[in-house]
Amino acid sequence: MEHCQRGGIAATLPCYNSTHKYRGKTVVFRKPIFPGYVFLQLEAGQKEALRQSDHVANLLDVFDQETLRRQLEDILLALETDLEVRLAPTIGEGMRVRIKAGPLRGIEGWVESRYGLTTVLLRLDFISQAAAVKLDADLLELT
User: Fold this and answer.
1) Mind listing the pLDDT tens digit for each residue in 96-131?
2) Do the domain assignments include residue 91?
3) pLDDT bucket at 8, cuts 50 / 70 / 90
4) Which of 16, 86, 124, 137 has the most CB atoms around it within 10 Å of its CB?
5) Do 20 and 71 belong together in one domain?
6) pLDDT at 117 (0 to 100)
7) End of a domain among 80, 104, 131?
8) Who has greater pLDDT, 90 or 88?
9) Domain containing 41: what range?
10) What is the DSSP string of the chain?
């Protein structure tokens, strides 16, 4: 986002508050609702300059700009409310996933069940035995 601001590029990063408790302290983090994506409004010539920077992995062309603009405005409006807004996870029961962060990083397993939007019961197979662990869905990726 800082790179965009310095370059005069209009950028939007929809974020939500994520609250965690650590040793009795409550800490609030700002997390992107679409991890890995920043929405840009580019002027002529900015696209090539942005592609040449070390800050962008890929640019996606949007053919229906008006629909995207409306949907983005709706998301930003929802995020301004007191409602809990999260990206609906695509990870569901029976899917094979890999843990992408934390002490079990790299381990693969099967989703046994979901508990709300954020928690997944994951079945891990070890030496012909199975164990189950509850994890935050944000820690998982599809394999």
Assistant:
1) 888 888 888 898 888 888 876 677 788 887 766 778
2) no
3) confident
4) 137
5) yes
6) 61
7) 80
8) 90
9) 2-80
10) -HHHHHTT-EEE--EEEEEEEETTEEEEEEEESSTT--EEEPPTTHHHHHHTSTT-S-----S-HHHHHHHHHHHHHHHHSSS---PPP---TT-EEEE-SSTTTT-EEEEEEEETTTEEEEEEEETTEEEEEEEEGGGEEE-
The domain tally of the chain equals 2
In a domain, 89, yes or no: no
Res 43: pLDDT: 82
Q: Is 39 exposed, middle or buried (0-12, 13-18, 19+ CB in 10 A)?
A: middle
Predicted local confidence at residue 23, as pLDDT: 87
Both 7 and 74 in one domain: the answer is: yes
* Cβ atoms 51, 59 nearer than 8 A: yes
Computed from CA positions of residues 64, 70, 72, 74, in that sequence, does the dihedral angle turn out positive or negative?
negative
Which of 135, 134, 132 has its CA nearest to residue 123? 132
For residues 103 and 54, state if they share a domain. Answer: no
Structural domain includes residue 127: yes
CATH number at residue 135: 2.30.30.30
